[in-house]
Amino acid sequence: MTPPIRIDRDVEMAMRDGVALRGDVWRVDDETPRPALVLRTPYDRANTNSDLLRPLDAATAGYACVVQDTRGRYGSDGDWDILMWEQEARDGYDTIEWAAAQPWCDGNVGTFGASYLGIVQWMSAGERPPHLRAMAPAMTTSGELEALETGGALRLNHVVCWLAYMTLDWLGKQLAAGRPVDPAAVPRLMELVGDASPALEHLPLGEIPHFDFPDFPLPLRTLLQPGLGIAQRFDYERIDAPTLSVVGWYDFLCTATIESHMRLVERGGGGADARARHRLIVGPWIHDGRLPGLQGELNFGVGDGPFAGIHRQHLQFFDHHLKGAAEPLASVQYFLMGADEWRAAEAWPPPEAAAETWLLASGGAANTADGDGTLAPERPAGGAEQDRFAYDPADPVPTHGGRTLPMGTQIAGPFDHARVESRADVLCYSSEPRAEPLDLAGPVSVRLFAASSARDTDFVVRLLDVDPQGRAIPFAEGIQRARFRNGLGDEVLLEPGAVEEYAIALGHTAWRVRPGHRLRLHVTSSSFPAFDRNMNTGGPVGDDAAGVVAQQTVLHSAAHPSALIVHTIRQVVPDGR
Hints:
Layout: E1 5-14, E2 20-28, E3 34-41, H1 55-60, E4 64-69, H2 85-100, E5 105-114, H3 116-125, E6 132-138, H4 143-150, H5 156-176, H6 185-194, H7 197-200, H8 220-223, E7 244-248, H9 254-267, H10 271-275, E8 279-283, E9 294-295, E10 298-299, H11 310-323, E11 332-336, E12 341-345, E13 354-361, E14 374-376, E15 386-391, E16 427-430, E17 438-452, E18 458-466, E19 472-481, E20 500-513, E21 518-524, E22 550-555, E23 563-569
Parallel strand pairs: 3-4, 3-5, 5-6, 7-8, 8-11
Antiparallel strand pairs: 1-2, 2-4, 9-10, 11-12, 13-14, 13-23, 15-22, 16-21, 17-20, 17-22, 17-23, 18-19, 18-21
Helix pairs in contact: 2-3, 4-9, 5-6
């Protein structure tokens, strides 16, 4: 029988500086002290319907669930700032300790939530709240990991659409307080929420007019700088609370979430025993709290969605660390796409996965899927040593699903790229059809030797599965801005025509290439509007009103062996679920 649940609304929680944050407390309607779970959100505490874990599920399972609006958002007092990560750390600490001190709490506190709701957990955990016992940050990133995942390019659709969404509540509070707001700015922002195209296509980027408000918390140009969109760092060495990290293979924060888990396991606080308590779950999902079996054009089956029981596994994780129940979760659980089944592993990448190198080659005409580009473990005899294409920022390759934020006009997830790879500015390197299954599990990268006529440009690479009917589904992708090829701290423009080596990370994946299917690698120079267009001028980001066409050369000779590096599992691994 389900116990009666009470919801205490608009509960005030005083922070150390006297500012009152407000939230709702969901709990069984009795006087028994219970463990507490804290969810802190900037997106309105009334909107918490996630397949990961719902407040009602937590309360029904015997937890007191605190759902709080973060500082300056919706029902909470104080001022909102776009990059107030240090403040979020302090507020998170204070909220955890506030919950622990309530008569309905037994002193054991956990935290959960996805995206921003997960990032704030990392920040507060670094402050080491005495009563924090465990946390479940899903779909998260940090400044250093964002830089790794974007190669110095800007997630344009993410920045513009997320900022528009966040600005609505801020603008409402400005108007309610009687502060000056340009009357024309309000409909302009509302237009952007409905269709982000006018802002995404605006040049120069640094002069997008939609966020031109008096007293706006942060100049738009600051957000255009590489790595500054999410400028916080996670202090892994100070985090000793056990973590359950959850993310999807098509989440644009997939790599960052997995890398955070790996860094905690490697160097987290509390010693070896504490580091062994971290858990990771990766399914075939996009960046969304809903986890349906249908993602993009693919149906991964009921086992990947609500029937995967991710909410149940959250509760099992917290039951172990907050209630002393047995530990039921494997160290790593991942969904092998293509086989459409769950696997368990001792670590990530799976210890049985081994790196393999596949070489790019062609007869000099790898342009489009109908070209002659090949991808194989060994370089074929003969052939050309390079391929060429022209990249025009006025006609960029359009983003079509993949790992992007599903906001504005963008969709995310696995979609057929047949139209994308029909363009002459997309080089395609394809393997022979597989005679037997090939399981990939782990990080994917590309070693690319390339030259450009421009002072700066981008290289975008994408790994796809091509079925016998020719449907090309991407499952890993990466980008590298040329000026940051040596890292964000070492900006160096190109010498036009000079050959450079690029190490491009495509993130992590787990995919089975079925018999009759082929691997294909795309090499191009844009994916708009997921990323901003490199204008090829070498000028500061956000300044250019127009770009120039770049002539790109990709080399794949013995002296310049451009290659794809994947991790494969050659033996059959038992199902871990």
